[in-house]
Task: structure prediction
Amino acid sequence: MGAMNAVEDVEHINFRLVAVLKLSGELGEDALNALRDFVRACNQTLLKKGVPESGRGAEIVRFRVLNEAERADEAENVDEAENADEAEKASDVIPGANAIEVEIHSDRYVRAHDALLRFRRNLAGVLGRYRIGLRGIDVRTYEIEMDWRDEVRVKSLPFVKNLSLSDGKLRLSLELSEREIERRIPDRILRLLYEKREMARWGGKKEHWELLFESERKEILFDRDPAEEMIRRCWIVHGASRGQWIYGPQITRIFRAFERILMEHVCKPLGYHEMIFPKVVTWDVWKHSGHARAIYPEAYYVCVPKTRDPEYWEDIADYFKITGEVPTDRIMERIENIGGLCYAQCPPFWIFLRGKTIDDDCLPICVFDRSGTSHRYESGGIHGIERVDEFHRVELVFIGTKEQVISHAAALRERYRFIFEKILDIEWREAKVTPWFMAQEGRAGVASDREVGTVDYEALLPYSGKWLEFQNVSVNGDKYPRGFSVKLRSGRELWSGCSGVGLERWAAVFLAQKGLDTENWPQSFREIVGELPEVFKFV
Ligand code: SER
Ligand code: ZN
Result:
């Protein structure tokens, strides 16, 4: 993200903050004098510390003491003071003074909210001598103005009550509590803005895509959409839910043949062990995996009842018994969202290792899961069995040192190549793309570490002339061990990778190229799949 910092450096930005610091006692003449001296010292040194020659840092441009009555005034009559000299004159002793209002201006160095925290930290010592303590901060106003060409139209942001864009300037008016200042929320808002702009700049370009390998052209035996043919033959029937199929005995047999190939030619020789990963994924997992950054438009949300008490639900059940309708809107009020259904398959596995230290002896660890469905709300994109909301995938996860993970990914790709060349005999290619976790976190581009990344497998769909991604192999670097605090006993860096094998996608590709008639399939695959069962007869 070096480029982003460069942009930040040349840009103009300023911060203006008005805050009231509440005190535990009354400020007398002596304390006020000490306060004046302290403000001067702040403007000369404390708020300038760490500021380079070219910068200005922060400055308390105005301060005054307030009593209860004036505090209630909500900073209505603020006289604009533009420099520190005025700030010193601004305050006189008043009866019952138990708060200090400061106005702080800054550039990018010692941002005004950091200046406020520095001021508070040191003020405690100054007022302590007069037995006056600090009682919390009210942030009255916080305005940020920055250069912003209108490449990104930001309409609203959390904690920003007003946002306007004109003359190449973005103006934000923030609404913050003391706690949010302490959590450096303003810094996070700015980081988010820079990130949105970075994304928009990438947006014009295509996602990263770089060809690594391409198979020979293969004889095309079929030129129709295999999904339509499968529907005609009743191999698949739409399920009751959107983007969901009921897979009949023939296609299920094909899926299981794919799984057997995977077991025989990948999992067994590479030393994989089967595990069962959860399929309800909580926000806790998605916060650590990064999915909480972007998953919202695609998640299948999971909710639980607010209570299991049958009485609480009786009227809902009664309503259905009488009307035959399920009152979903009323159900919504009685349930609570806890996360969603499995989306990327490997993230919930990491709870198994969270916070643990692994013995180096057991590396590399290779495990896989094929215990359930994955779900993505694909909206308009649903097509055939190649783009569905509910799909079946075998997910391979490998964990080891950096060298182990990188060499394992290479071994895995070798094994896959054997399958696609020697068993399925399809036309396919490999491409290095934006790492899946970055794509799923809504980040563009490539990982900063060249060795981290996703290789997508794509195959030609003759009926449309398009290439379909049907599986991937990824080296995820230290992302997951770091995200879930997993360590190695030796202290060496722990890496991981994963590979998702989509059964629907394999079928979509294979059947699109070879058709549904088994006599056209490669002998190697026919032997594995055997006879397709004919079970249902319809009249
Ligand atoms: N977890 C990876 C993904 O979601 C591989 O399945 O793409
Ligand atoms: Zn994965």
Summary: Residues 1-8 have pLDDT under 50 and may be disordered. Residues 344-346, 395, 436, 472, 498, 500 surround serine (ligand 1) (CB under 6 Å). Residues 228 and 384 are 7 Å apart (CA to CA).
